[in-house]
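can u do me a favor
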């Protein structure tokens, strides 16, 4: 029997406690599956005297995660503290410099420093694994890195923030507005300490940037992700979109085309009856497309103690089995600088506008769209009691540049109140 694999766990919040629980519950199972005992040697957290609902007996304690990362009796440093910089990054760098493997759930750290950390790990012969950083319990990093290794990946797409999906689907189901459901999500403890990470699309953008790097062999480039949160989505948007057969999702899309690498995490419309359209509550879904496999859809819990700890243990088990995969699926030195796509691939768009109810108003809208080269696919005007009429337009495929031109045209007329709401429709 090989030597036990010794873990040092830094961070005993929800995920860290989940990992301890799995280790206590499934030690035998893990040993049978990996052919090796896996043990926790030492742990570290901000507060020692706190009832976490799980026994820490038998584990050494370190106040300082960097000291934990240095310990000679730790083979794998499990970083579950979070934060893109600060103690998490310092401890991971220390572990790598000491030649230790790292398992982390820290999407922010890898989205910002992934290339540097991957290069450092490879120089030391260490690995960094991060299944828990993307889409919680869904084994999407493994699917992309290993399961689809024989494919040229053509598109990665998905709902990767459960909190946003919860708020959007509850708006649809209850008819309540964004603010009320933001508060509900807060009361349920769904929001990150900085809620803008969730509703501003940043958390999901970090995840998309990590998947894009694996998918396209490019250096992780979170700063190139086009980001927009869900804060401006109104109940009107949700109900009108539903009326036209769509759902609104905070949707991540990454694709590498002749124009360059396109990475977007923005509110989009998807067909209501598609798998993404049917995704309710805090669940995540990732769609992966490759030239041979065509399309696979992965669905599951994107957060929470059990699911995220399950993903951490998948990485730990791989290391115990001797499976050593480069951080982003290929040697860090071979990752390309991502040429940034200047504009998104053309798509149909949904426009919602308030139109002055007077003769020729609709004709003016159609003319301006026509002059911008935007063709109308479907249109609906609603009955109304006041001077303006709600109008919805679904366009044929067009570009954001053409829509910008149309918006500039709308501003020069007096027939539309404000700018139209414009949302991209993503095909599945
Ligand atoms: N806050 C995230 C979500 C989970 O709501 O999906 C952690 O990334």
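np, heres the sequence
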């Amino acid at each position: 029997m090989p030597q036990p694999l010794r873990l040092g766990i830094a961070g005993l919040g929800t995920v860290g406690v989940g990992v301890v629980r799995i280790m206590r519950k499934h030690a035998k199972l893990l040993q049978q599956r990996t052919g090796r005992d896996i043990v926790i040697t030492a742990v570290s957290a901000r507060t020692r005297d706190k009832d976490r609902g799980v026994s820490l007996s038998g584990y050494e304690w370190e106040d300082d995660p960097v000291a934990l990362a240095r310990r000679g009796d730790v083979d794998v440093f499990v970083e579950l503290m979070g934060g893109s910089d600060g103690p998490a990054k310092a401890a991971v760098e220390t572990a790598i410099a000491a030649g230790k493997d790292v398992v982390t759930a820290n999407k922010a750290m890898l989205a910002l420093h992934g290339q540097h950390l991957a290069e450092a790990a490879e120089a030391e012969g260490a690995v960094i694994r991060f299944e828990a950083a993307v889409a919680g319990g869904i084994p999407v990093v493994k699917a992309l890195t290993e399961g689809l290794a024989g494919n040229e990946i053509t598109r990665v797409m998905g709902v990767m923030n459960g909190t946003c999906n919860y708020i959007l689907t509850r708006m649809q189901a209850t008819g309540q507005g964004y603010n009320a459901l933001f508060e509900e999500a807060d009361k349920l403890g769904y929001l990150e300490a900085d809620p803008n990470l969730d509703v501003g699309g940043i958390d999901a953008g970090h995840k998309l940037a990590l998947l894009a790097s694996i998918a396209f062999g490019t250096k992780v480039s979170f700063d190139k992700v086009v980001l927009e949160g869900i804060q401006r989505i109104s109940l009107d948007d949700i109900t009108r979109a539903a009326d036209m057969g769509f759902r609104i999702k905070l949707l991540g899309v990454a694709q590498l085309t002749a124009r360059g690498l396109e990475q977007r995490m923005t509110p989009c419309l998807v067909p209501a009856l598609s798998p993404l359209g049917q995704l309710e509550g805090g669940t995540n879904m990732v769609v992966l497309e490759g030239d041979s496999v065509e399309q696979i859809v992965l669905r599951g819990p994107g957060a929470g103690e059990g699911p995220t700890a399950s993903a951490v243990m998948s990485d730990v088990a791989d290391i115990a089995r001797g499976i050593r995969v480069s951080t982003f699926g290929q040697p860090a030195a071979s990752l390309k600088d991502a040429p940034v796509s200047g504009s998104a691939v053309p798509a149909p768009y949904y426009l919602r506008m308030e139109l002055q109810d007077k003769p020729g108003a609709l004709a003016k809208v159609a003319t301006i769209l026509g002059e911008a080269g935007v063709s109308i696919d479907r249109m609906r005007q609603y009955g109304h009691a006041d001077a303006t009429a709600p109008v919805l337009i679904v366009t044929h495929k067009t570009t954001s540049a053409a829509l910008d031109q149309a918006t500039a045209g709308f501003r020069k007329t007096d027939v539309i109140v404000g700018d139209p709401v414009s949302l991209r429709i993503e095909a599945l």
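Residues 161-163, 190, 192, 198, 203, 302-303 surround L-homoserine (CB under 6 Å). hope that helps!!
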